[in-house]
């Protein structure tokens, strides 16, 4: 019984909706125009059944071709997704290796910088020292002075 009420409600609702929509002049004209075209097409194909069959056949072939292309595309995309899924761990590992190499390089650069700074400090005499404070300089100065005499 509830099935009958449901169907009755659907039919009544559709009829009321159609009547309300037909209150608009543009909608009425559009409905009349499309109804006339549909009627003309039905009359034409009723008298030309072979054309109707060939039109259905053509549409069926188009649908099959479309389905085949979509299936091929889906298979191709599925294959690419699988390739990417397999590559992700490899890429992650390469990225981690590269990160490790960069960190090692950074540490080496910092150590080299420290070595260079300490070497520069050792090679630069302090401003308070003089050349005569060095004992080797004293010996060479003394021999120079003796040779001059």
How would you summarize the topology of this molecule?
Blueprint (H helix, E strand, L loop, with lengths): L1 H20 L3 H23 L1 H75 L11 H14 L1
Task: Write up what this structure looks like.
By secondary structure, the protein is mainly α. The chain has a domain at 80-120. It is 89% helix and 0% strand. The protein is built from four helices and no strands. The chain is elongated, with a radius of gyration of 47 Å. Mean pLDDT is 82; it is low at 129-137 and 139-145. Residues 104-124 have a biased composition (Basic and acidic residues). Residues 102-149 are annotated as: Disordered. Residues 125-143 have a biased composition (Low complexity). The chain crosses the membrane at residues 6-23. Keywords: Membrane, Transmembrane, Transmembrane helix.
Quaternary state of the chains: single chain
What order do the helices and strands follow?
HHHH
Query: What's the overall geometry?
Result: elongated
**Between the first and last Cα atoms, what is the distance in angstroms?**
140 Å
Number of helices: 4
Strand content: under 5%
Structural class: mainly alpha
Extract low-pLDDT stretches: 129-137, 139-145
Query: In angstroms, what is the radius of gyration?
Result: 47 Å
The helix content, as a percent range, equals: over 70%
User: Mean of the pLDDT scores?
Assistant: 82
* Main sheet specs: none
- How many distinct beta strands? 0
């Amino acid at each position: 019984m509830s099935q009958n009420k449901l169907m009755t409600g659907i039919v009544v609702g559709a009829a009321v909706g159609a009547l309300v929509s037909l209150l608009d002049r543009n909608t009425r004209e559009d409905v009349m125009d499309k109804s006339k075209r549909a009627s003309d097409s039905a009359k034409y194909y009723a008298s030309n059944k072979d054309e109707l069959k060939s039109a259905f056949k053509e549409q069926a072939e188009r649908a099959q071709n479309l389905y085949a292309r979509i299936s091929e595309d889906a298979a191709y995309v599925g294959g690419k997704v699988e390739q990417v899924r397999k590559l992700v761990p490899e890429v992650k590992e390469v990225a981690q290796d590269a990160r490790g190499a960069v960190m090692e390089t950074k540490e080496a650069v910092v150590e080299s910088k420290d070595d260079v700074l300490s070497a520069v400090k050792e090679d630069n005499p302090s401003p308070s020292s003089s050349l005569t404070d060095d004992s080797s300089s004293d010996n060479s100065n003394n021999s120079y002075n003796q040779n001059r005499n």
